[in-house]
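Dear Dr. V.,

Thank you for agreeing to look over these. As mentioned in my earlier message, I'm a first-year student in the group and I'm still getting used to reading structure tokens, so any feedback on how I've presented them would be very welcome. I ran two proteins. I've put each sequence directly above its structure. The first is here:
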Amino acid sequence: MIVEVQPTSPAIEHLSFKTLRADSDSAAVNLSSSKEVLNGARVVHGGILTAPLDSAMGHAVCEGRGDLIASTISLSVSFLALARRDIKVTRRGRRTVFATAEVHGADGTILAEALDCFKIMKEQTEISGNPYGMSV
């Protein structure tokens, strides 16, 4: 049974991934392998895979901490093999949290590893600026 752990955001809805579970130590996210998330080689695009990795680690960092939110400071992903699905996350920390995540294939092989660094904030009002006004 899939249970939404946190309200979805427009980005999460657009990329069609769901948080299956989250606690203070780990989280699991499922990413749909629909054709919209595939690259030219017909496997999940690395950039698309990075979003659920970051989101899953954020869920694990914030779960059970009340109204705290986590904002990504730094994110590094190593792609070790062609990734298809399954994300698992572990973490520990306080105000600045380092989290790690792995993407596992159906056979359990590690396909990608990620390291994320988050700043933990007490309330959403600590975020300055207009997030929708950002340019890349």
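The second protein is here, in the same arrangement:
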Amino acid sequence: MTRRSRWGLVGGAVALVLVGAWLAVGLVPRIGVGAFAQLDLESVDAEDTWPDEVPMSMVVDPSDSTYDGMWTFQNEGVLPVTVRLAEHEKPSDLHWEALLHPYDERHNVVGKASDTVMLAAGGGLAVTFSWGPGCAPVAAGTTMSTGSVRLAVTTLGLTRVVTADARELVAFSHTEDFVPPSACDDVG
């Protein structure tokens, strides 16, 4: 083996390692918290959180029985991604409805709802949601909170489900027993 072919072999191995490392880093979806959140108009900030806990916004006895809001997220990866909502892991009798929107963080503009949103590196995404007891009875004094959404993120044809944490927890609580509406009797 000549000196020239050895250097070619070493150079090829180094290039292969660098391409592999770049793909390993580039294929891992990184969805970070965006700069904006919209809280329910009836919400109040929970004041009994510890300093190191995530802040919480709560609706007590919501007039429409749900917490309605919006979280924004950002593609912190180096490659463009396609995002869609993944299966939500909340108890099935609770109401959870969410929609994806493209989000221009620079101009604070939320786009039209879509099943999928394509994000360039640094691109923004908004998730509008409605969350509440739905057809589940809730005892007086019970507080239920959530602070994340599951997203299916596709990078170079590989889809991974990631849990995107919001900047703030959202919660609903009832001062009296919540009895599901009669329309819930028809579901089943």
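From my reading of the second output: The longest strand covers residues 158-173. The chain has one domain: 30-186. Does that match how you would interpret it?

Kind regards,
E.
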